[in-house]
Amino acid sequence: MKAFRNVLDKVMEILCSTILAVMVLVVLYQVFARKVLNNPNTVTEELVRFCLVWVSMLASAYVAGKKGHLCVTLLSDNLNEKGRRFLEIIVQVLFLLFAAVIMIYGGWQASLVTMGQISPSLSIPMGYVYLAVPVSGAIMLVYSLMNLFDRTPRTVESEAE
Description:
The chain is mainly α and 161 residues long. The protein has helices spanning 2-35, 42-65, 74-77, 81-114, 127-130, 132-149, 156-160.
């Protein structure tokens, strides 16, 4: 499971970094076209917006998988090791439910509903943009399952390393 996690982490890092690099290059071109060529391009703005949706959704799944999400440690700091493990199980089960019901099921339904809508500049179905939600939900579900069976609880000290 450790090897699979490492591969998934690497894929997510490369994917998110690539999308971010594409966004930077597209925005640089957009500014160049607007200021130097005096020819603003509407396609670039829409592409960057859609890339932002995808990178934010994928990155949120990655952060949840790395147990790097925002948390309040007031309760977990005052628990013993067994209590922390129980709390971690509850958190991961809630992540599983959220990923399965809201992100995968709800995101898939939203994607299906919006497949008929076409984006104005890129002329692609909007369902492909909304597809970021169920895809990220599936990745979050996989990460949550791995976190559920991982025996190392999240601690503030381990995050500082």
